[in-house]
Amino acid sequence: MTERVTALEDRAAGTAAPAPAGELPDPDVFWALHRLRSELAELGEEDGGVMIVGTVASGPSGGRAEWQQAFGTAALLESDWTSLADTVAALGQPVRLRLIQGLLAGRSTVAELVELDGVGTTGQIYHHLRQLVAAGWLQAAGRGRYEVPPHRLVPLLVTLGAARG
């Protein structure tokens, strides 16, 4: 009974202890992992893989951002990670994260973003927005408005979730 309660608590928290060597994790907890393993086996990806998947209400427009992408482990490990430095670095600045959070909360213009605590002057905000646009995390939405592109929303949230550990 204790094991079942622990498994249910772990499932609710989105975590679980790894399965013992040679055993597959509980399919009720790791349903996505079981599906990924099946897909990778069909593709002959013996080294494994990772998947990003999500469905998120995409803000004031009322739409949804739904996205998935899978990567074979070998291809990821063998690729040039240095080409991703600017994209990753763009999120490594607290003001930029605060600006993105403000945009996702419904603000869309620099005039609205400047009201946020600790984001700096209008000129500084424009600098940060340009960096985020160049990295692909934001896009100009016309008339001085900015938004997280729908195809980047799930990867953004996954990245932030992964950073939490």
Automatic annotation (TrEMBL):
Entry superkingdom: Bacteria
- InterPro entries in the cross-refs: ArsR-like_HTH (IPR011991), WH-like_DNA-bd_sf (IPR036388), WH_DNA-bd_sf (IPR036390)
Name of the molecule in the record: Winged helix-turn-helix transcriptional regulator
User: What ranges does the record give for the region Disordered, renumbered to this chain?
Assistant: 1-21
- Biased composition of type Basic and acidic residues is found at 1-12
CDD domains linked to this entry: HTH_ARSR (cd00090)
